Structure formats: structure tokens, C-alpha cells
Amino acid sequence: MTDLLLRNGRPWTPGSPLATADILVRDGRIESIGPALPAPDIETVDLDGALVLPGFVDTHCHLDKTLYSGPWVPNTGGRSLAGRIANGENRRAELGIPNAGYAGNLLGAMIAAGTSYVRSHIDIDPSVGLGGVEAVREAAARHRDRVDVELVAFPQGGLISRPGVADLLAAALADGVEVVGGIDPAGFDGDPTGQLDTIFGLAERFGAKIDIHLHDPGNLGAWEFDLIIERTKATGMAGRVTISHAYAMGGLPADEQQRFAERLAEAGVAMVTCAVGDAPVVPARVMHAAGATLALGNDGIRDLWTPYGDGDMLRRIMTVAFRDRLLADAEIELALAAGTHGGARVLGLAEYGLVPGARADFLTVDAPTPAAAVVGVAPRALVVKGGRVVARAGQLID
Predict the structure, then answer these.
(1) The pTM is what?
(2) Residues β-bridged to residue 118
């Protein structure tokens, strides 16, 4: 059933005051929001003042790498980027990953915690080919109508430095993968111009979006920001390019952060931050003030890179708010906005949010304010996707 009437909720939209209202859903979309809506003969739920949030958007995770729900595997990847990449590739066959069962179980946990949309980076290299794409698609099919999953063809082990990967990325995009990825064009791949030429060329050829992992710190990372911004403007790809992690942004002086945020907003380039370990986070206040898009993701979840994570986007929103020193309620809500509306902009979701006409993707929590929900990682009472209740009290509904 995709018709539903929710009574006495408090729908949240960034920048708007909270007020008690009913939400009427028809054919999987929000038809109207307001007080004391007429009661049609459809399923009705009294929310008793619960806070209603739009469905979470995880714009950066790695479903193909996860060991979630499998046996415990001690982490042996070390701390260097190259070491973790090599460890992840060398142990794939031993551990049976990519694994559609693990990925499906993780997606189930994410859905039960309120995530409605996911962008997953999928390793593409000569040894695995498109195996990760197939596994994650199988996992997503298991949860059809509970979550939307967008895939990134990601050259984790390098693109220009690794013969054959560009052709594999093209094959993935030809097979329907929506986004082409990149990784540290200068610091890891060693050829920023060559990598960006390839990535932007593939995006133009296949009508794909772009999402580039950028771990390079300091001036090197900042220089690459400029390269990506200029390339986006030159190719007319505003709104279709994302820089993930963007560690350099969090470590720059305040005036440089402001300059880059304004340039990102002008060019239509988004950033995604994940609050990974002790790596710098992209400053939410600076991005918001400039009108630049910021989104969030869980990154690796119980895989060969990290033994941590549970896929809960509200916990990740809290972690980002804590790491970014967001203290006032309005500041904490910036992190919540990044984990919802910011992610929707990155994925290009035109019909998103708690407004009439939007897809009915939302969740409810018992919390006095949005900031309190974030800080307390409030339990999810109800999760709705396309107007259908898909989880209650943290448990999926078949």
C-alpha cells in the first residue's frame, strides 16, 4: 500500500519552524501537509508529536567491500592508502568479496535506520572486473522498493597508473552504472591531467556524473580542487561533479576555505565528508554560508579498511557534527541537512523532501528537536519509502 495518512507529526525542513501537521500520502507521494487533514478511508498512523525527517541519503559508501554480517575478520590493512588498497585487493578471493549477501544485509540495516538513498562506490580493476557491480545490484534487487542505490565505477587501485582500467570503467558505464569515479589524480595516480581528461571524457561520452575520492592534503589537494572546478566549468557539468572526502578543505586557513566554498558554489561542484578517523572534515558552516552543497556518507563499513561502522546515517550525522564542532542547534541542523537535502542535491533528486509532490520517503523519531535527535541518535520508530512502511522500531517489514 502506498496511500497513508500520518496524524500529528512535526515535519522538518531546513530553515523552517517546526509545527504539528498531518501528512497525506497517495500513490507513493506526499499529496498534502497541514493540520487536521480530512481522514480518507486509508491506513492512518497517529505519530503523537514525533519528529518527521526526510529519508537519509548516504552519498558515499562501499557496499562491494563490506564484510557486514559475516565472520569477524581482524584488520590487517595498516595505515597507508597504498597498503589498504593492496590489502583489500589481495584478500578479496580469500574472504569471498564482493558478496551480495553481506551487501544485502548491510543495506537492510541501513534501510531500517532510515536511509532511503545510497550512492555506493564499486571497485573496478582487472582482477575483479565488474564483479562488484553485479554483487551490489543483486543486493539492491533484494531490497527493491525499500531503497534506491546509485553506483559509482571506482578505480580504487588507480586509473592512469593501471593499464586496462579506463576500458573497464567504460564497460561499467555502458552497462548502466550512473557515475564515474576517480582517486587522488596527483598524489596516488601521479597524472592529474591524464586522470581528469579520462574521467570527464567518459562522463561526457556516457552522460554520467563524476565523484572523485580526494585524500591529498594541504596545497596539493587545494590545487586539485582548482583543477576539478575549472574542468567542471569548462565542460558545463555543474551539479554533476562531487569531490569526496576533500581532506584538504578541512585543513585550509579560514580565508581559503571561504574562497573555495564560493568557487564550489559558483561552479556547481559538491563535496562529501565522512568524518573518517582523524581526517579533517569539510566545514559545514563555511559551505552553508557560501551556498555550496555538502553531503555525507558512511564510507567503509566493517570491511578490510575498517572494522567499524553500522550504516546508520543518523549516527554518521552526529559524528560529523561532533567532529566539526557544531554546537548551537542551528549548526547541528546543518549536519542533518547535509545528510538529507545535501545528499539529494548530489544525487539529483528533484522530488525530495517533506513537501507536497515529493516522493514519500521519510522516517520518524521521538525527539524534542532535530538537534536533539542528532545528538542522541534517536531510535527510528517508523521508516516509510514510497508511501509504504518498510521498517518499525529498527526492524524491516517484509
Answers:
(1) 0.97
(2) 58, 149
Measured in whole angstroms, the distance separating CA 48 from the mean position of its chain's CA atoms is: 30
Tens of pLDDT, residue by residue over 274-288, are 999 899 999 999 999
Where does the chain show beta strands of DSSP type E?
4-11, 21-26, 29-34, 44-46, 51-54, 56-61, 115-123, 148-154, 179-183, 209-213, 241-244, 269-273, 294-296, 362-365, 380-385, 388-392, 395-396
Whether 303 and 66 have beta carbons less than 8 Å apart is answered as yes
Mean pLDDT for the stretch of residues 173-181? 98
Compute the residue count for the chain: 398
As given in the structure block, the three cell numbers for residue 194 are 591524464
Residue 123's identity, in one-letter code, is D
- DSSP state letter for 299: B
Average pLDDT, the chain: 97
Residue type at 133?
A: V
* DSSP state letters, 212-252: EE----HHHHHHHHHHHHHHHHHHT-TTSEEEES-HHHHHS
Mean pLDDT of 158-175: 97
**pLDDT single digits (tens) 84-109:** 888 888 999 999 999 999 999 999 99
